[in-house]
Amino acid sequence: MEIQKSHKITYFKEIDSTNTYAIKNIADLADKEVIISDTQTSGRGRFNRRWVSDGKDNIYLSIVLKPCEKVCNDLPLVNLTQYMSVILCRVLENYSAMPQIKWPNDVLADGRKIAGILSQACVKGDNFKGFVLGVGVNLNLSQEEIDKIDQPATALNLILAKPVDKKTFTEELLDSFFENYEIFLKTGFAYIRKEYLDKSCFIGKKIAVSAAGSVDTGVAKEIREDGALVLINDDMQEKIITIGDVREV
After folding, report:
1. Residue range 206-248, CATH number
2. What is the pTM of this model?
3. Which of 137, 167, 196, 211 could bridge 59 with an S-S bond, Cβ 3.0-4.6 Å?
4. Which ranges in the chain belong to alpha helices (H)?
């Protein structure tokens, strides 16, 4: 018997950005609707970095989520990117990859970025219009294409030394995401914290965290119950980091 999917998929061959489309059309899109495109002409990651999006055998998608109608601070929306990073790791492990998470939500394999996640919330006054969770995964890229990316990166096909079926991977990713999505909304980051910590690659290491033009350095001590990073700075004081870009120093 065929399992009824909880999500609807809207497909494009080419689009500027799945996240941009979802944000612009949020009022007309359904809860759990997924926007997928073969290519993006203006793909972006965190901090407005360009995401190479012209390989049709990679994943570029955005999930529209509407868990409430009014602004609700009880829902762990800020942790949805971390939840997705754990889901991505689970799926990648099914392909015998050895993924890690770079706080807060970059997914690495062989120490190089293989997937990125970008979230955007749409709020007007007290009305919550929706939450858009964008995901990009390098499934099939040549080494020449990888070399053009302005940060250490890899693709699943290079790790496996064979092509990866995009349709199968996408189905596994979405099914895994939605399988425990409702539980995550009720329990928050605590639901995935142990698994997230097991995959974190910088705990106990000296790091630099860049955000809003400033840089904090210190040792990554732990990830709190709310998903924030605890940094022991050079003055041996704890600092709570809720946003930033991490690199090892």
Report:
1. 2.30.30.100
2. 0.92
3. 137
4. 18-24, 80-94, 143-147, 156-160, 166-179, 181-187, 193-199
Q: What is the pLDDT of residues 202-229, one digit of tens each?
A: 999 999 999 888 999 999 999 999 999 9
Q: Structural domain boundaries of the chain?
A: 8-199, 206-248
Q: Who's near 135: CB < 8 A, 6+ residues apart?
A: 59, 60, 61, 62, 63, 84, 88, 115, 116, 117, 173
For 115-153, write each residue's pLDDT tens digit: 999 999 999 888 999 999 999 999 999 999 999 888 899
For 61-93, b where at least 16 C-beta lie within 10 A, e where not — what string?
Answer: bbbbbbbeeeeeeebbbbbbbbbbbbbbbebbe
Q: Pick the closest to residue 114 from 151, 80, 168, 78 (CA basis).
A: 151
CB 106 within 8 A of CB 154: no
Q: Which residues of 159-196 are buried (b: 16+ CB within 10 A; e: fewer)?
A: beeeebebeebbebbbebbbeebeebbeebbebbbebb
**What is the CATH number assigned to the segment(s) 8-199?**
3.30.930.10
